[in-house]
Amino acid sequence: MGEIHLHAEPGQVAEFVLLPGDPNRSRWIAETFLQDPVLYTDNRQLLGYTGTYKGVPISVQTTGMGCPSAAIVTEETIRLGGRCLLRVGTLGASHPRVRPGDLVIAQASVPNDGTTRQFFGGAPYAPIASYRILEAAVQAARDGRVKHHIGLIMTEDAFYASTPEHAKLWASRGVLGFEMEASAIFTVAALHGVHAGCMAVASNNIGDPEFVEPSMLRQSVHSMIEVALEAFCLMHAEENK
Ligand SMILES: O=P(O)(O)O[C@H]1O[C@H](CO)[C@@H](O)[C@H]1O
Ligand SMILES: O=c1cc[nH]c(=O)[nH]1
């Protein structure tokens, strides 16, 4: 059976793992981009697939929504062999510079979530992206000429508690957008000494229930996944030099 939540065995998960929140996005990534994808777990709809992209073994593992689920999935993905974990998500734009449809590559995430707080007993801690993943992600976005923003994001628990006023306040502190998993993923990866990163497409402005038009969102997510996979290829090539 494997882990409690991810029903897989070591050897079924690749070193490079994409982490979408949404199981449908996982299936779409596996079917669209990976060669010979194999579904290794579907327990609790946390779909996980392994295949190859340009010859590099890559897994796609659903995190579900929110830090409690993302922390469990990150922990178990690492136990199963994941070493470079890259969240590929969506976020609500908080900063006026970020427009719906834009790609954001996170340097770090303000941990406005209960999971990170529990890990550190309330002590201050800064969940940051691994520099190696950040560097590869930025290079892949530049190489692919994909418009992107690089900076601070915020991870929160209560999707519907966020307001445009809240967004404005955090934008004045440099936060580009809010999402719900990155701080837990960065934290669990750091505690295990493995690499983690996060990129996300802005699906809406914070507090605005109007999401970007579906075809535009699909196109932006498609570009993001290409950037993420090319970043893994750059890291793989660097490791095998
Ligand atoms: O699109 P995903 O990756 O699920 O990410 C965002 O979407 C969900 C909220 O709608 C949260 O999981 C948030 O982080
Ligand atoms: O967490 C999220 C993700 C997308 N859009 C939001 O408004 N919040």
TrEMBL record:
Signal peptide: none annotated. It holds the Pfam family PNP_UDP_1. This is Uridine phosphorylase. It catalyses: uridine + phosphate = alpha-D-ribose 1-phosphate + uracil. Its EC number is 2.4.2.3. Residues 16-208 form the Nucleoside phosphorylase domain. It comes from Deinococcus roseus. SUPFAM superfamilies: Purine and uridine phosphorylases.
